[in-house]
């Protein structure tokens, strides 16, 4: 029996229907059949699985419109989304007043200050 060449590959996947993202690592075994033809098998956790490059399936919605990307893309997108959704600390906005435009160096803005230019004068 000939030796089996094994290559390790990882991919990131994103479902274009439901937005589910995941990553998977594969052992790709290169074999030669009895007739001398080469073939490959994709193995995950000891189980032979279909090639993820032929028709990947979303594990969330079973759709086959799945984008395949280099490894790490799902994790980096999740990290970016997490950073983007972190709220800044609450508190009043402080805007410095240019020199010569008042005695205060800082002014705390209030909603009424911002709406003042838009308020109508009663006639």
Describe this protein with a few key phrases.
single chain; 123 residues; mainly beta; five-stranded antiparallel beta sheet; two-stranded antiparallel sheet; 2 helices; elongated
Overview of this protein structure:
The chain is mainly beta and 123 residues long. It has a domain at 5-84. The protein contains 2 helices and 7 strands. The protein has helices at 73-84, 111-115, and strands at residues 5-15, 21-32, 38-44, 47-49, 66-69, 94-96, 106-108. The termini are far apart.
Average pLDDT:
76
How would you describe the shape?
A: elongated
Order of helices and strands: EEEEEHEEH
Our estimate of the beta-strand percent is 25-35%
Q: What is the secondary structure topology, with strand pairs?
A:
Blueprint: E1 5-15, E2 21-32, E3 38-44, E4 47-49, E5 66-69, H1 73-84, E6 94-96, E7 106-108, H2 111-115
What is the structure about, briefly put?
With 123 residues, this protein is mainly β. It has helices spanning 73-84, 111-115; strands spanning 5-15, 21-32, 38-44, 47-49, 66-69, 94-96, 106-108.
